[in-house]
Amino acid sequence: MVIAAASGAAAQKHLSRVEPDVILLDVDMPGMDGFELTRWIRARPQTRYTPIVMITGREDAESVNIAYEVGATDFIVKPISWSILAHRVRYILRGSHTQAALRESHSRVKAIVEALPDRLYSIDERGRVMGDNTSLASFDPVSGTTVTMTTDAWSEFEHAFRREIERTAGQHVEDVLRSGRPVESAISIIGDNNRLRHYEVRVVKQTAKLGLAVVRDVTLQKEADHKIRQLAYFDPLTGLPNRQYFSSELRACMEQARRDDAAFALLYIDLDHFKRINDTLGHTAGDELLKMVAKRLERCLRAEDLVARPGSTHGDDTNVARLGGDEFTLIVRDTAAVENIETVANRIIDRLKVPFEFSGHEFVVTPSIGIALYPNDGEDEETLLKTADVAMYQAKQAGRSGYSFCTETTSVRSLERLDLELDLRRALERGQFELHYQPKVTTNGWQLTGAEALLRWKHPERGYISPARIIPIAEDTGLIVPIGRWILQEACRQLASWARQGIPIVPVSVNLSGQQFWQDDIASVVETALGTYELDADKLHLELTEGVLMRDVKQTRDALQALKQTGISLAVDDFGTGYSSLAYLRQFPLDALKIDRSFVDDLPEEDAAAICSAIISMAQSLHLTVVAEGVENREQLDFLTRHECDEIQGYFFSKPLPAAEFEAMLRREQSFVEFVGDGMGQSLSVAANASAT
Ligand code: C2E
Ligand code: CA
Ligand code: CA
């Protein structure tokens, strides 16, 4: 459709109603001329880009210039050749469509660029910034955060930022222009509040001579990554690597050492009596102390240049780690230091000896250090760590505040034993011990008269482990002392708790190991246990083996006397195996005697029968209660009853029972008459065995 207008004013009227594809316009018109109308048309947003063809009779350069100046798209000189005009118009229309499409795509790109978190910089071949998608002044490279920098600091930052972009883009732009393949790199600059800002820089080809640097702020992402890593691999209290990190570090170390055919040392450090500080001063003080210890350990390594790896940075590559609690490890790779590892250990001890100050108090912390050398003491992570751990324990045994290498015996000990040893050390803290109770029954009336408390270790992987296996290890390692104390405490606690619930309790016998008897201040340990739980002394019996008592008569007598003072009863355990004579026993304040299980086992064989009856009559002459343990069958029971043995313990009546089951037994009528009286004893005991643990 073509609309004709006779004057400029008429054209204006039409244009308020239609938007033409193209406008043909005479220069000379009545009233408003073509130039003025064109100006008017261009000023309106609706027709800003509408093609305008001016038809002019004047061929002078002046009017052509004005026509273009005011915004004409093209012009035609009169007289008009109508056939050419049609082509001209079609050509102009095509051009205007292309332009419209370009304009649209341009504004789309602009919108996209504005929406992107990235900043774009045109970079010339030499890496100079030629332009960016925002004016640099308004560009906030510290996006997403409030900028708290002063104007000076801000412009300094901007400057540094731009310089960094030019530097990194400059390194790659030539390559990118040549190959057309984008290159990525990263920059980091200190921003506001000394916060390190991180940017990803991607250089792509823009034109033959221009690269485009696409810069993205990845600070938050980087910080989040760092945080996650920190949480996963570092101990939040001290900032030292944690067990996880240490473990991978140790493996890496081993690999390296294997390749280089080198050695390194692993130090396992445990603070002596740390628990005491924690208990008496509280956890805050304990935490504070651990932090200070961590710092000293780190510093003492760095100061002496023990960190072997060049370029190691704090935190990421330190050789000190905290495995938990007050346990630290340290890997020494430096060859000279490994050769003089004792010097290193001594240095650590010396450094830690300097008192720590904390809220007006001074503390002295001494470490026990176990040293294991790779590859001598273990070629895998587990073995090496265990060896160091055990060596540390030996250092503790040897009087604390010292170091120890793993000894011959440690290194030849089987891994399983090592395993048990280490687990055992933690079993107490982890509450893996239990006491089971095995009833004792009187032959005179078949009443429940007492029980023996027997240790059970509920190992998380191996299930119940026999005390026959634990006790020797505990004795070797000295662990028997804390474990023994726990046993005493637990027995007293349990009895007192039952008594408080109105359950009729019977005395419980606790086994004492030799070390406990000789090394620990056993009388006061017993008193504390009784006192803590307000338990009457007559509810606690102690069993000591013959072997333990025979060591030194005078000392034994004194120690037993002290124990006796607490009011408890004492029994000789495993009697008959230790060649003790009547003369000895007479000097000790004993209350009971337990015939060793091996003799009961063989009853009613002739030899065993002779021994058992001799023991019983000897005990009677000393006015000791005689207990037979390990009684499993009717024949044994009959023999012992006939020979007036006082008490019977064994599977015949019951296996050792978990506390809950023994409690049930205490609550029931405490009589075993039915077991023996009606001739059904044998089958009943079989049933009892089958249901026991
Ligand atoms: P023990 O003091 O001679 O304890 C008696 C052992 O004989 C217990 O083994 C008990 O379960 C077992 N026994 C009881 N009746 C029978 C039976 O009729 N037949 C058979 N075959 N065995 C029976 P358990 O509990 O394995 O303890 C073994 C040893 O470990 C104990 O021998 C004792 O020397 C030591 N032990 C156990 N608990 C403790 C403890 O709390 N402290 C200390 N120091 N040693 C303990
Ligand atoms: Ca015993
Ligand atoms: Ca025994």
CATH architecture of the largest domain: Alpha-Beta Barrel
- Strand composition percent: 15-25%
User: Treating each run of at least 4 consecutive H or I residues as one helix, how many helices?
Assistant: 27
Structural shape: elongated
Find the CATH topology of the largest domain: TIM Barrel
Task: Characterize the main sheet.
Answer: 8 strands, mixed, barrel
- Bound heterogens, unique: ligand C2E, calcium ion
Report, as a whole number of angstroms, the end-to-end distance: 105 Å
Structural class computed from helices and strand pairing:
alpha/beta
Strand order of the largest sheet: 16-17-19-20-21-22-23-24
Estimated radius of gyration:
47 Å
Nearest-integer average pLDDT:
84
* Total count of strands: 25
CATH superfamily of the largest domain: EAL domain
Q: Which stretches are poorly predicted, pLDDT < 50 over at least 5 residues?
A: 135-139, 303-318, 409-414, 679-693
Q: Which CATH class of the largest domain applies here?
A: Alpha Beta
Helicity, as a percent range: 40-55%
Q: List the domain count as a whole number.
A: 4
Write the layout of secondary structure elements.
Elements: H1 8-15, E1 23-26, H2 34-43, E2 52-56, H3 61-70, E3 74-77, H4 82-115, E4 119-124, E5 129-132, H5 151-179, E6 183-190, E7 196-205, E8 210-217, H6 219-233, H7 243-260, E9 264-271, H8 274-281, H9 283-303, E10 320-324, E11 327-332, H10 335-339, H11 341-353, E12 356-358, E13 361-363, E14 367-374, H12 381-397, E15 402-405, H13 408-412, H14 415-427, E16 433-442, E17 448-459, E18 463-465, H15 467-477, H16 480-500, E19 508-511, H17 514-519, H18 522-533, E20 540-545, H19 546-549, H20 553-565, E21 569-575, H21 582-587, E22 592-595, H22 597-601, H23 606-621, E23 625-629, H24 634-642, E24 647-649, E25 657-658, H25 659-667, H26 673-677, H27 681-691
Helix pairs in contact: 8-9, 9-11, 12-14, 14-15, 16-18, 18-20
Bound molecules: ligand C2E and calcium ion (2 copies).
